[in-house]
Prior knowledge:
Blueprint: E1 5-9, E2 15-16, E3 36-37, H1 39-48, H2 53-60, E4 61-65, E5 72-76, E6 89-90, E7 93-94, H3 102-106, E8 109-114, E9 123-131, E10 142-143, H4 145-151, H5 155-168, H6 173-176, H7 181-191, H8 194-202, H9 206-209, H10 214-222, H11 224-240, H12 253-256
Antiparallel strand pairs: 1-9, 2-10, 3-5, 4-5, 6-7, 8-9
Amino acid sequence: MTRKSVMHPLGGRRFHFDCHQGMPCFTKCCANLNLVLTPYDILRLKNRLHLASDQFLDRFTDDFVDGTSGLPLVRLRMGDDDMRRCPFVSPEGCKLYDDRPAACRLYPLGRAASKMYANCRVGEQYFLVKESHCLGLKQDRQWTVQEWLSDQGMAQYNTMNDLFMDITTAQPLRRLKPFGDRHLKMFYMACYDLDAFRYFIFNSTFRDRFDIGEDVLNRIQTDDVELMLFAFRWLKFSLFGEKAFDIKDHFSRANAI
């Protein structure tokens, strides 16, 4: 089954949308998806399911390589039936609704954001995603983009996803392509396998090599959001050489990473 959609820039215009269980198209948008998950999506989902990050990745995702950056990305593994349904959808709706991914949360809008160089402001544009099966677009209820973002709890998702985008799209391609297997494995671990990244920090020589304050270590040991923020800083340091960490005096930078 082919799922076709048309994207219409919204600008400052309002749009019509409503969705509830009584609608004939309910949950049709939860099938036949190519849903790329961001690190924050995975954090929310694995915690909701009480799974370690590697368990979630093994059971619910597939890896692929982005054709532009050469970096590993993760998509949600759909069911193997003809409908290719999301593994978390039921006839009553999403079983993980409060922790659903950003793309599901944002629907029927799409967000295009760009940040091509360090220290420049993120630019964003919102689109209305029109799909033939969706009757929600024909309902009377109207929204502005900001009303919809607020109603769907997008603030934290956009904040975290923009930080991820700062790593994946804000660097010139010449700095992305040459990464070797070791760097790509580090990227995958720090972004997606957050529990393994925590183990790496606390059970390797990491703390011997870098001057990390005890308050920071205490936060990242117990708080996954703080750990993810720390991971993004680490990737900027280890992949792009940004001065995000202080190396202890008896280590050179080359030996530190």
